[in-house]
């Protein structure tokens, strides 16, 4: 088997979220079906993702991995529509050894480098091109590479970085950005929002800002939450944490919007956090303003240890290997 890392992005408007659901169009379902079709697999392969985004949420820097039989890569050698070698970075993230995910020396544990075809980078570039021809325009796999030892898209991650975009323009938001920017019908004061956000940073039980899920922990480390105005236009929140529970970012945004427009005092979000129960006054902000911008990973030598440590922490706190990241 060989583990591949996929870097991808999507417009979440017409998707019922990331996770595969019978009878619904999802990002996971679309990509798995495309991989199965291109590689002529008996069953679509299962993707593991860094962030299971909710319906309507976008992603610019999503990361996933998939485990495939090495023999499946042979399918990419058939009828390849290329007459020249792939250039470094042509869909596979650069030359082997100098990109995240590595090259031949980054084969998953238990798969010797010599077990992979010598032209594996070219074949993976072919896979990226074929995915571009099969997938709809609202989802794109930007690169595919052989993952380094110990890489797990979900458990190896150090952080997830989201952005939330909201316009408080008096006449409404830019119609050309209506799929990614939420319009708020009251003027917003970013200084007050940032003062309230600063009180939420650190490791806490964010149960007050999460949708309850059986067996899932709500303890998170919120590393950054700050608002800036984008060149006099929309306000953009940068939100970074080790992981997020279901609807956490949008609930935090909803609470801070209430502070920014003067409906709530600066102290209120921290008071809600301290009660550790859902507050009816916290309104979850609309999904389309949210975008997963980046997933951060440690150096290759630390990937396996990070994944093992994350599994231990989440399993112990949740009482099992339950979902812990979902926005």
TrEMBL record:
<comment type="subunit">
    <text>Homodimer.</text>
</comment>
<feature type="domain" description="Pseudouridine synthase I TruA alpha/beta">
    <location>
        <begin position="196"/>
        <end position="298"/>
    </location>
</feature>
<dbReference type="InterPro" id="IPR020094">
    <property type="entry name" value="TruA/RsuA/RluB/E/F_N"/>
</dbReference>
<dbReference type="InterPro" id="IPR020095">
    <property type="entry name" value="PsdUridine_synth_TruA_C"/>
</dbReference>
<feature type="binding site">
    <location>
        <position position="162"/>
    </location>
    <ligand>
        <name>substrate</name>
    </ligand>
</feature>
<dbReference type="GO" id="GO:0160147">
    <property type="term" value="F:tRNA pseudouridine(38-40) synthase activity"/>
</dbReference>
<dbReference type="GO" id="GO:0003723">
    <property type="term" value="F:RNA binding"/>
</dbReference>
<feature type="region of interest" description="Disordered">
    <location>
        <begin position="77"/>
        <end position="116"/>
    </location>
</feature>
<comment type="similarity">
    <text>Belongs to the tRNA pseudouridine synthase TruA family.</text>
</comment>
<dbReference type="InterPro" id="IPR020097">
    <property type="entry name" value="PsdUridine_synth_TruA_a/b_dom"/>
</dbReference>
<dbReference type="Pfam" id="PF01416">
    <property type="entry name" value="PseudoU_synth_1"/>
</dbReference>
<dbReference type="InterPro" id="IPR020103">
    <property type="entry name" value="PsdUridine_synth_cat_dom_sf"/>
</dbReference>
<keyword id="KW-0413">Isomerase</keyword>
<keyword id="KW-0819">tRNA processing</keyword>
<protein>
    <recommendedName>
        <fullName>tRNA pseudouridine synthase A</fullName>
        <ecNumber>5.4.99.12</ecNumber>
    </recommendedName>
</protein>
<comment type="function">
    <text>Formation of pseudouridine at positions 38, 39 and 40 in the anticodon stem and loop of transfer RNAs.</text>
</comment>
<dbReference type="InterPro" id="IPR001406">
    <property type="entry name" value="PsdUridine_synth_TruA"/>
</dbReference>
<feature type="compositionally biased region" description="Gly residues">
    <location>
        <begin position="90"/>
        <end position="105"/>
    </location>
</feature>
<feature type="active site" description="Nucleophile">
    <location>
        <position position="54"/>
    </location>
</feature>
<dbReference type="GO" id="GO:0031119">
    <property type="term" value="P:tRNA pseudouridine synthesis"/>
</dbReference>
